[in-house]
Amino acid sequence: MKKNFSPFLLLFMALLFLGACSTLNDLKQTAEKNMAIDRTLPKYQLNKENLKEISYQGKTYVIQDSTVDRERLQEPIGKVAESVTVNEKNEILSKEELRKIEIIPKKKDEKRFHFNFGWVYRIKNTSPDEEVAVVVNHEYRLAKIKK
Fold it and tell me: In 10 A of CB 124, how many CB atoms?
């Protein structure tokens, strides 16, 4: 029985290996495509005084709490490309402060919030002069032009 089982096991392992190679190749191609797109995207500026605002070419957008469905997105039109950690007072924490380890804490545990900003997308049937979608912590957030 073991001799009959062995060729099937080898065949299964070979098919599994070939499938994994194909998946890795697909991931590599997607990453290369995304890096090429990222190099061409203009940079939107994050307002460090108010993390709900981004601006580009004199236009300021206010990031809303509401999200946009992926199906409503069109092509990326820009990038924010910022990662920021703030405390409960909305003060931005420096890299040095984030690395600091206190042997005896001076105060109670401080709450921290991390925001990772990514690409800016055009929304279907909407002018970018009115609204765009911004990636914040892997969610597509609606951003409306500030009036």
Answer: 11
Burial readout 40-50 (b: 16 or more C-beta within 10 A, e: otherwise) = ebeebebeeee
Nearest to 43 by CA among 30, 53, 57, 24: 57
pTM over cut 0.70: yes
- The string of pLDDT tens digits covering residues 62-103 is 999 999 999 999 999 999 989 998 888 888 888 888 777 665
Domain boundaries, the chain: 1-40, 41-145
Class at the top of the CATH hierarchy for domain 41-145: mainly beta
**Which amino acid would we find at residue 123?**
I
